[in-house]
């Protein structure tokens, strides 16, 4: 499973559980503009909006020697928002859509004042200052490690868009008894952000998500400007109309797509599972929306729960009859 933050892929092929190895799946995974080794168009002349990212996807499809029509899109975080957006405009190209902790329907109430100040356009702050502040918020200072249980704390602000980029989050329950508390109300959930040391590449201790983000901050001059423009212009919030368009295409049989699958983390403090499902079912309808909510998993779902995602792709979307090896426990599922 490709686990680069905010990734977008046709299907997945890395770290596929053994029962799925016989399933022949052509796969393509791309680093979005300004990430990984991908170049970054200048934000002064190109907004990182729906049009730019759709152009990137179409360029990849057109330049490939493989015929990709129709195909399945698997999008994680920002990639999920872009996958849904692309499907709403090019339904005839799509036969499957799997959205993993996707953006697109994030409610505005989760945008902090500091984020509004940093990412508003036109900005009240000099752009050079915005870039320095955003880079500081993205930096985790992670150290290479081979111990997957040794995490480093990062940005503590719940709902921070930077935390979505560094990917891994978790929610813990902390007991807070007080004299006024009843015996049935002794604890509360608190969002705690952790920088995962889960290795993206086997045997490479410098391949954690946080280490990759820090590498980009150090070596990729286009990363921060691309990130800022993406937060400002990409289809991350209030995309109900575009998701509703997917439903209309399905109902009018403009596409081979029949269901939209979502894989969510129960404790994800960035993509709130209950809120997303309420909004997604509202625009897609109960017949189209399908989901799996993984128990005790946060926004790291796309990084550390590849087996569960591949299970949905292979068994639910592609319809292959193979034994499930899902590692995570589903709090709830539909379909």
UniProtKB/TrEMBL annotation:
Q: Where is the composition biased (Low complexity)?
A: 166-182
Q: What superkingdom heads the lineage?
A: Eukaryota
What segments bear the compositional bias annotation Polar residues?
Answer: 142-154
Stretches the record annotates as Disordered: 141-187
InterPro entries named among the record's database cross-references: AB_hydrolase_1, AB_hydrolase_fold
Query: Could you tell me which residue ranges the AB hydrolase-1 domain spans?
Result: 28-311
Q: What is this protein called?
A: AB hydrolase-1 domain-containing protein
Q: Give the species this sequence originates from.
A: Neocucurbitaria cava
- Lineage of producing organism: Eukaryota, Fungi, Dikarya, Ascomycota, Pezizomycotina
